[in-house]
Fold these 4 entries.
Entry 1:
Amino acid sequence: MKILKKIYKFIASMPFAIILLIAVAVACVIGSLVPQGEQFAQYRDSYSERTAAFILAFRLDDVFHSWWFIVLVALLCLSVLLCNLSRVRALIRQTKNAAVPEQAIALSPDVTAEQIDDPEPVLRRLRFFRPVKTTVDGKEVVFAYRNRPGFWGAWICHVGIVLIVLGYALGQMTLFSATVYGTPGQTKPIEGTPCEVTIDDFRIERNETGFIEQYVSTLTVGNAETGETQSGTSSVNHPAVLCGYKFYQTASGDAVRVTIAENGVSFESTDLCVGEELTISFLPGLSLYFNAYEPDHNGQPAYQILFFYQGQHMDVGKNYFAPGGVIDLKPYTITLSEPVSYTLLRVKKDSFAWLVLIGAVLTALGLFLALYVVPETAWAVREDDGRWTLNGRSKKLAPLFKEQFDRAVSGGKEAAK
């Protein structure tokens, strides 16, 4: 039993909780800096072979789902929870005792003033507005207290921190993330969800000097399972929340509208973004890959189109085509339009963001109570000569309380401030 008690005290101790909090914070930083979910080759190319092996061995490629991260978060939550639970009885007792004259008077005062004619005006200047007259040990006492919720400031703050850590960890473990890109008018499925997004419009806003100020996408999202449809606008730093998902405006790039015709009659048209491949339906095995929109050998803006046949790159002698140019594959022609801009959207869903929000509110409340709602008591005891001895006690900020106390006793005009 003694060993279990020692283990309990160690887990419920504040030093252990601080160590765990630092460890979890370091793990979160690593998870943010190291690209998650990549293959060994990507890590080897970005770092080194040894570092790549280290990343995979310790699950740094998937920090938020690794066993050691889950254990750290569980221990941290357990430690702070036990630490808080062990303090509940003491806090309840402390809060109750602060309103009991016999208990409060038994404590040593921080400040004392003797030979007071009437303590009640002094108490009012100290902002003790509801003094209670009672008798303690046969002596007449005027007692007052305030700000008892301040006892709970640190406790509430710790609960908030636990909820923030727990919400962030659970959110990362269950986070959904996908990428969608396209041009206005296109409808794209959101992989891994029953939803699809239609890009109604995309515009690049510029200021008077021509510099880009904002990227704005107007979207319509539909859920095939529920039949729900929602529309909204997403811009940089202002994501749209549609059908339970957040749509972040991430980037933009160049796209080309490809029109395919046979003997001059168009029968297919599609937008091709940089990095996309178009399979030629009328020539099985042949595909076009839009590699870049950049200056050609003459310094003129052009599309770099790569040709592939059955997955193998074909050297056709020409890879750059000017906007408006035509690729001739008699009797078919492929016309490349002027460049258009496409929008790149990051789609995310964090099911535990509400828990982080609650934790943040509780943490802020706890800090406010701990820093600004300071429990204080004051009591005056009538002496045998009929005059009073006034005492005061402050849980924190004793020097400041002493200054206010002295000014209140002296009756200075600044006492009420």
Entry 2:
Amino acid sequence: MIRRKTQREIDVMFLAGQIVAKVLKVLQEMVVPGISTFDLDQKAEELIRNLGARPAFKGYNGFPGSICISINEEVIHGIPKKSVKIKEGDIVKIDIGAEYNGYYADSATTIPVGKVSPEVENLLEVGRKALEIGISNAKPGNHLSDISHSIESFVLAHNMSVVKSFVGHGIGRELHEEPQVPNYGPPGTGPILEPGIALAIEPMVNLGKEDVVILKDGWTVITRDKKPSCHFEHTVIVQDGEPLITTRLK
């Protein structure tokens, strides 16, 4: 069941989103050659807790980190490790969730490290714009699939692919709620959006084909063809007028 949030709940979710946005901003500035993904994870946990929240991912179904951090062909759910050091030319996906006063926020971005190829620069631009296009369709009266279709159409027009094995989701008192928010599909289907519906919209865009595999660690998802992938995400609340992006720093 899709549960619409009250104004009080939206106010708390906005605060949770701002915590995530602040932490993500600091981590982006820390992403330089030589830093380990473990160091970024430790800093994220410290910042989240200092801001009065709890890392949503830590311990979630056994996940060991406070953030998911995925590099290059890794799409999502990469585990932070001391042995993994970021290098010049990498693209680094950081996915952060936080729980604040009983409500959740979830956001992700992809960061180029130093100089990357024009092809990869284009991938990141397409991923960023796909998220914005999806968010622009999170309006009352639209169908849920209007978000999905707008993302897929934009990505396919740039000769890239969207991951179909993993999708966005509703969010609120739980990290993952109904409905699922695919990044693909026909328009005009699924639930009609109403004010108070909260969604984590998260395009995962591959430079190559859509197929992915999960590594033996049971978490890390990579592209089957080993081509780069990007991931962008915001927590969004449908409202009259423009959607409220709780995880965009105000």
Entry 3:
Amino acid sequence: MRKVAVVTDSASNLPAELIQRHHIFVVPVLLYLDGREYRDGVDITAGEIYQYMIASMDNHLPKTASPSVGEFIRVYLIAAQQAEEIVSIHLSANLSAIYQVANLAREQVPVKVHVVDTHTAAMGCGFATLEAARLAEQGADADAVIRRAQEVAGKVRVIAMLPRLDYLQKGGHVPAVAALAGSALKICPILTVANDQARVVELPRTPERAVRRLLDMLERDARGRPVHVAVMHAGVPDQAEELRREVEKRVQCAELFTTEFTPVMGTHTGPGVLGLAYFVEDGKLS
């Protein structure tokens, strides 16, 4: 039996192959679409959600919800069969109720569960989870696994180019005036998630300029050092592949992979989003 099992939620955006390879347990976030409930990544795919959003003409956007306490308990009990303790790693408590639900569930299982707030989202949380799972595979105890998750979460950067802001506005994430301004000016905002907040940091005028700025930020932060990079996209695999090739040219990648925004993330950002999550191996980002 292992010392530690690592659990996360589906909003961490980890690719399925990495979840399987590193024995990570995932609690699916919930989606509600046309009166039906779906489990993120289980009952519905990201591609299906994006197709629906485009076809619906923005009139009937999906709703999202945190997993239930019962679903967390179910996953914790499965994980407990393989490990002495559980480290449960999740996106910022300021961005979702998932962290609070995980804490409620941990009190109801006969195994010690440590719940970690990464204070970030998407593959920011994903990288913290992945690095924690790699350490757990080496036989590390819970304290060491938690420290690694917190260390990576503290230096990972998540940046994304949004072709439009109205999806965020509909979900209450940015003021309506920002969405209207973006539509009128044809800008492609760059959004970052850090310190428990999602905020717009730049307003490039075209998608091409926005992508160039993503690459510039990555190259500036890497400063020639090895960097772990995830290319994220919402229903635009061809553009993601092009961005991935540019990343390979610009920086020294310790690892590089592409992942699609999960349906839960995609309902908030809308189709067409491109982004990067990354951290430098030997130092904190400035």
Entry 4:
Amino acid sequence: MDYDIVVVGAGPAGCLAAKYAAKNGAKTLIIEEHASIGSPVQCAGLLSTSAIRECEVVPDSGFHPITGAFVYAPDRRRIRISGGEIKAYVVDRRIFDRTLAENAVRSGADILMRTRVVGIDIGREAHGRGRRRILHVTIEGEPDVIGADVVIGADGVQSRIARWAGLDTPDTVLSGAQVSTVYDFEDPRFVEIFPGSCAPGFFAWAIPYHRSARIGLAVRPGSGSGVEHESAWAHLKRLIAEHPVVSEKCDPGIAGIALGGIPISVPQQTAADGLLIVGDAAGQVKPTSGGGVYPGAVCAKIAGKIAADAVMEGDTSARRLSEYDKLWRGRIGRELAIGRRINEWMTRLSDSEINRLIRVLDDGELLDLITRYGDMDHPSVVVRKLLMNRKSMSAFLKMALMR
């Protein structure tokens, strides 16, 4: 088999990269190692309205609308953040991912399931114009070879494509765990967030989805005290059994379990001769929320077009493809960097400091500011507004001086 562009991985980033490569004239193939797109599920499925638009999908009755959030301090005090309008949707990722795959196929891409890449060779260099890639694969267990002018690695946080190309992988990866169960939501249009030692280095969540709930958390390796070496699953079991809020509202019965890694750092380079990486493979994930669909979609569409243009020009060298690096960092690089600093600051807060922070934010003026300027995909906007507010800035300074 021979293609202009081969995309490895049929998640949202992979499907959108393939869609845009095909739309721009490249003969494109998606290969997916699993038997079913969207499985196994490794995502909470909470997508901002911007993420839905960026994926070019129209919400339907299967999308569960979210209009706000309750944020609980470790001492059970909570703040209510509500914009009145729909801010996000909870989706079934299996159906959502399959829709994106169908859209890619409609745009002209081919797709092969149960196809696993087991190695990559580099072909001859064409007078400084890049090296063709030869993928060694197994298709339903049978060995085969696929040629490509450009390979786009969308194969997740532990990307083999990136490693084989000599590219760095994200150096900070959270460990996540989630269950599907029944939960007593006060408002089924609100998610619930639980920062603190119940999820060292990140936070826990309760997300409504029609008549069920997704209860999960992520932890940062090396965070916490005494339990830093425990798995996310161990922390989640303790959350459900012992947390003063979650344990009262959560049914002990579990319908499904999802485990996965969440990268919150980006590598130095995301392009090489005849190769690009996108999505989780490139650490294109919001460090403040762990969401990867919006930034992955933004970057994947850039990757698909750049790869197709490079093929049409006959130049797939690292120098030509590095335009992808410049463009995606120009779009979301600053936001990811600010998100990383916010995450690192939150990681250092103790439960008592989080309690004080929630008390400070439980103020009509500040909650109105958060409601007006809060954005799941651009947290720097509301952070800037808070830092410009004398009331919140004074409290933040006091917290910093007391550390």
